[in-house]
Amino acid sequence: MLAKFFIFILFIVAEIALGVYSLAISESLLARFLFFILSAIIVCAAVVKLSNKLLPDDDRRRKKVVKKKAKVEEVAE
Known about the structure:
3 helices
């Protein structure tokens, strides 16, 4: 339920931003490019933050680090 509300709010914010964009800077190619870059960065940051919260940690990387430390300790002895 909360996820649906978040998606709905995100959709509304995107529509408002696109409306302002189309009214204010519809002819400038540089402004279009900068708006695209800004929105791409915002979407990328949101996806990374959301995936970090939803997906579990990768335990395989930790296991490899532990194995390497064990090998180094064996060689040192």
